[in-house]
Amino acid sequence: MKLKFTTKLSYGIGGIADNTMYTLAGTYLLLFMTTVAGVSPAVAGTISALGSIWEAMCAPVIGYKSDNAVTRYGRRKPFLMAGSVPAAIVTSLLFTAIDASPTFKIIYYAIMVLAFWTCFSSFFVPYMAWGSDLTDDYNERTVLRSFSYIFNQVGMCIGMVLPTIIVDYCMNLGKTTQQAWQTVGIIAGASAAAALLICTLTIKLDDKKDFVKPEKREHESIFKILPAMFVQYVDLLKIKSVRVIILASITYLIANITFSSDRVFYMTFNLGMDEKAISSVMLIITLAGVCSVPFITRMAVKFEKKQVFMFGIGASGVLMMVSRFVGVESYGALVAVCLFYAFANACYWQLMPSMLYDVCEVEELVSGKKRSGAVISLQALSESLSIAGGVQMLGIILELSGFNSEAAVQPELALTWVENAFCFIPGAAMLAVAVITSRYPVTKEVFIKVTDALARRKAGEKIDLDEFRDII
User: Fold this and answer.
1) Sequence-distant (≥ 6) Cβ neighbours of residue 322 within 8 angstroms
2) Three-state helix/strand/coil letters over the chain
3) Band of the pLDDT at 223, cuts 50, 70, 90?
4) Which among 339, 322, 343 is positioned nearest to 331, based on CA atoms?
5) Which of 40, 97, 278, 359 could form a disulfide with 178, with the two C-beta atoms 3.0–4.6 Å apart?
């Protein structure tokens, strides 16, 4: 189904919200808690990991609820609307430095991190699943994701580039570091809330495929939903296409969170860069991602999504690994590594959701029901666990290598491992992603075959699933 330009634009604007919050937390939360709020690296890493694990528990519930919601606004839209105001409030509170005892700080930030990721998952899973509902066209999904990715980069600019600019500006006005970071949280939260409201209020009901109401159900408690989702996940993971795409997603997200959380440490402590210089690099990453969109879209339409995805991430990973041995000691070398990452990141966030949408049709063929929310929430669960593992790993690396958040000059061992986490570790994980994706079986030809089978089934014909044993 072809979509109106206005629908693509409105859906894309929603991408500002998820990337603002995701990038802000992924890039600065560990740094904020250790260097501004005064929490030790290992404890800060544990708190961040706890939040990601909590999101992993929320995602199944939200996915299940959005698949089965019965409202006058369809299945997904109410979740985005409900998450808008909490996004503004919780983000500002998370980046507020409090003057309290170490124990109270741990409790406060643990609660705020849990609230932050609860808010995030409440709109992220329905937003992603909405893309699958809006169109079932193989190439149109890639185009839809290109709109979302472009606005993702606006969110990345707000969550990654703007914070250092705001901090520098506020401190030049005589504000404290704590006040500056609270301003960052307020602006980022308000931006996410505005994006969600614009997205939901400008997509009209007659533009939405998912306005067909599902069968009404009685209220189900979380104690019934979680076991039901567990059973669904077990069924989903029996499908080869799902297993491959989820494993590739987990591996990439470990690379992504490691690089994202470590890069400010690397630029600050290894290269001695100030806020303005760091902001310039962050802006380059954002612009590089936007500039990559037309090329990736054109290549994915002309060739297979899978091939473009494999090459983009795999080649970037190899170049990042090589950079570690060549050395990243100059501004130019730093920018080069960030460009490698930016291209891989563009490939992932533009093509991975589109590939996930295609898997939704495979799942429908197997189960007889379209459960986009279940598929997306499984990916969101894997994302949460990847973030938890990656952040916890980085926190442990910093702690064991002797990183001292109060010292201007770090031990040589700490600097070495900060550099490893900047180049080699994410690069190796990206290369692994390319290897895993080589086994992904859903090509355009296969997708057409699947959608044709679904159409024939709806017409009353019995479908032999043995025809699809290579993908299920």
Assistant:
1) 427
2) CCCCHHHHHHHHHHHHHHHHHHHHHHHHHHHHHHHHCCCCHHHHHHHHHHHHHHHHHHHHHHHHHHHHCCCCCCCCHHHHHHHHHHHHHHHHHHCCCCCCCHHHHHHHHHHHHHHHHHHHHHHHHHHHHHHHHHCCCHHHHHHHHHHHHHHHHHHHHHHHHHHHHHHHHHHHCCCCHHHHHHHHHHHHHHHHHHHHHHHHHHCCHHHCHHHCCCCCCCCCCHHHHHHHHHHHHHHHHCCHHHHHHHHHHHHHHHHHHHHHHHHHHHHHHHCCCCHHHHHHHHHHHHHHHHHHHHHHHHHHHHCCHHHHHHHHHHHHHHHHHHHHHHCCCCHHHHHHHHHHHHHHHHHHHHHHHHHHHHHHHHHHHHHCCCCHHHHHHHHHHHHHHHHHHHHHHHHHHHHHCCCCCCCCCCCHHHHHHHHHHHCHHHHHHHHHHHHHHCCCCCCHHHHHHHHHHHHHHHCCCCCCHHHHCCCC
3) low
4) 339
5) 97
The more confidently predicted of residues 472 and 252 is 252
pTM of the model: 0.74
For the chain, the domains span 10-203+222-468
Over the stretch 132-182, which tens digit does the pLDDT of each residue have? 888 888 888 888 888 888 898 889 889 988 898 899 899 999 999 999 999
The residue count of the chain comes to: 472
Residue 218 has pLDDT above 60, yes or no: no
Tens digit of each residue's pLDDT (9 = 90 or more) over 410-431: 889 999 999 999 999 999 999 9
Q: Please, are residues 74 and 211 in contact by the beta-carbon 8 Å criterion?
A: yes
d(CA 221, CA 61) in angstroms, rounded, equals 10
- The reported pLDDT for the residue numbered 213 is 47
